[in-house]
Amino acid sequence: MSAQSLSVIIHGGAGSPKEIQENPREVPFLKTALDAAWSALLSGQTGDKAVVAALRVLEACEYFDSGYGSYPNQQGLARCDVALMRGNGDFISLLNTRRLIHPSQAALDQFTPGKSLMAVWTDQMMARIDSASTEEKERYGWVATEAEMIAPFAVEAVRKHTANSPVSNHDTVGCVVRDAQGRIFAGTSTGGIMLKPDGRVGDSPILGAGVFADDEVCGLSATGDGEIILKSLLSSYVAADIRSFLRADPQRFEKDPQLLKTILSTELADMRRKYPKGEAGMIVIPKRGNPAYAFNSKVMSVAMRVGNSAQIELQDIRLAQ
Ligand code: ASP
Q: What pLDDT band is residue 169 in, cutting at 50, 70 and 90?
């Protein structure tokens, strides 16, 4: 594959906040996450390390629903889901992780070339980290008690949430990168929907729903109503559409920079037509061509950069409305 620009795109969730902020508090963290992934790629690290470098920044920030910012479930506990996928087909998904501020790091450290795994977080996994070195515990953001996973921001969000006036924020985080060799990597990390039932798993760690990467097609990360993203096949249809266009013309997305956004908006509209309550957003990098994002919620926080060490060709960091 020929050398090409580096691409990074990040989201910090799609939602409908009660108040629109004048200086969105998420934006500086998105920039730090973007810089972290970018520096990792520039320093020659693999794309999955770049993805996790970005996810770690967002998992540590209470404004995002992942790691430390996870919304509590009905039992008041943080249960996180994470998945990483490489465009060669390798993947790892960890479901219902506990007491880890950085589930993405736990996933990366279990990512073995040529192997794929989807696993529920077990007591044995807990025990292994519990008895690990201090350094390893710190790398995973291991906390001693369940209570340390629930940030003040999440407590406040739950307080504001009522049956008649639900908080509909989906602040899951995700990152997709394409390296200079055209290899694609994607990751999604979430605390799931607020007050979810015990054991619930949404779209985020499911391939072809909350996360996907295929070097021949695209990489993506989704956010929003997990059950609707799952049953509508939103992300799978997006990947299928991209694949059809690439089959007809491998350069189609370079020639027509608006096309990717049109595909995303069309599939989101179709999801909404079928499931009128469905809110979702997605970031995508195609095999060739620039990243794009779209959402049907009121806002979605995003950051993207395309270029190389000499030049930034494209950059966009915002709470998009
Ligand atoms: N999609 C996530 C889930 O359903 C929630 C989110 O995007 O914030 O678990």
A: confident
Domain presence at residue 254? no
Are the beta carbons of 72 and 195 closer than 8 angstroms? yes
From the CA of 74, how far away is ligand 1's center (Å)? 15
> Which whole number is the average pLDDT over 57-66?
96
CA-proximal residue: ligand 1, atom 4 (nearest): 226
CB neighbours (10 Å) of residue 257?
Answer: 12
Q: Which atom of ligand 1 sits closest to the CA of residue 226?
A: 4
pLDDT, residue 167, reads 66
pLDDT in tens, 20-53: 677 789 999 999 999 999 999 999 999 999 999 9
Q: What residue numbers bound the domain in which 116 lies?
A: 6-202+298-320
Report the SS3 class of residue 201.
coil
- Which protein residues touch ligand 1 with a CB less than 6 Å away? 13, 65, 170-172, 190, 192-193, 202-204, 210, 223-224, 226
**Ligand 1 center from residue 173 Cα (angstroms):** 9
pLDDT at 166: 65
> How many folded domains does the chain comprise?
1
CA of 164 relative to ligand 1 center, distance in Å:
20
Helix/strand/coil for 78? coil
Does residue 193 fall inside a structural domain?
Answer: yes
Would the pLDDT of 142 be above 50? yes
Question: Token digits for 289?
Answer: 């061509």
